[in-house]
Amino acid sequence: MAMIKQYKKKNGEKAWYFKTYLGIDPMTKKKKYTTKRGFKTHKEAKIALSRLELEIEKNGLPTKKIEIPTFREVYNLWYEQYKNTVKESTLFVQKNAIEKHILPNFGSLSLDKITVVYCQEQVNNWFTYYKKYSNLIGLTTRIIDYGLKIGLLSTNPMNHVIRPRKSERIDQEKYVSPFYSKEQLKSFLEILNRHEDIQLFTMFRVMSFTGLRKGELQALRWKDCDLSKGTISVNQTLAKSEYGKEIFQTPKTKHSRRTISIDDETLKYLVSWKKEQRRRYLKLGINTLKPEQLLFTDIDNKHLYLDYLNNFMKAFLKEHNLEKITIHGFRHTHCSLLFEAGVSIKEVQERMGHTDIKTTMDIYTHVTEKAKEQTAEKYAAYMNF
């Protein structure tokens, strides 16, 4: 597979060069060649080639020719495989996490220079400021694992780090309640109904009484709602793509694709909103009876942007001096109140679309702990002496 040829230099002089096959690049798995130039005669080039071939046969490929790539280079190779295994919304979130929190500290390092000590330092740092630090550990581990698969390393230093223990302490200034009590939810919806538009009220009513995720709620179409049977089917969700564009996509897991029953009161609000939506948009010359019509839209009948509810909540809670809660907190609220109402763990899991029963159990544990705290008062009230 070697080749020796004559060529002309820039100054017009003639010289010889050879090109020969070195082997397979361990990183790219592609064939690797080397070229040597500047030989005065064919014989000189042939001798140099023979020496190189003899050296390779005796000692293998010259180590200086095989450079261990940087973490960023391995990440780029891993990413090409990874992007075909997840939904666009997941890809967007994970890519953003890698580029913001992992690459700044790992990117320029040669893979073989990354030590357990260095990895531990980064893990400890992530723990101080990033809530989902375990996700960063997992992503970094998978990228380096890819380096192992293509023969660049024999061990992964990330497998030897010690994960910091989550603190039980809560900063009261930053604390946000994971969910509302029955009384808090009732108060919130009453204030919302008095002061805000019917569309906003209907959104929060549906979210609070079905446990839908924000993206699921904003992707709902009227064809997903069977108003005669009183059910909502989750068939799509609003999410962000790899490049930050908001898109509709199928639910993340098979458990997320589900049909949820609606209570009669919430059903009445939905029927009322459908009529009001029809009336409003007819004035603007927009037909809301088409099959793909969304339940909740902006003034142009386009989907509401993903952070719409978050931005509204910040201002609304502050204006009415209400207990802080996130949009996702309304989903937790629904889950906890289902348990308080006596619904079984399995039924709650199916209604919420939880893939892992542990997620359901975590909320159940919180509810039962709360019930334990109230046991003494219940007993004293019953005894009444």
UniProtKB/TrEMBL annotation:
One of its GO terms (biological process) is DNA integration. PROSITE patterns: TYR_RECOMBINASE (PS51898). Gene3D superfamilies: 1.10.150.130, Intergrase catalytic core. Pfam families: Arm-DNA-bind_4, Phage_int_SAM_3, Phage_integrase. One of its GO terms (molecular function) is DNA binding. Residues 175-380 form the Tyr recombinase domain. The keyword Endoplasmic reticulum does not apply. Keywords: DNA integration, DNA recombination, DNA-binding. Belongs to the 'phage' integrase family. This is Site-specific integrase. It comes from Enterococcus mundtii. The lineage of its organism: Bacteria, Bacillati, Bacillota, Bacilli, Lactobacillales.
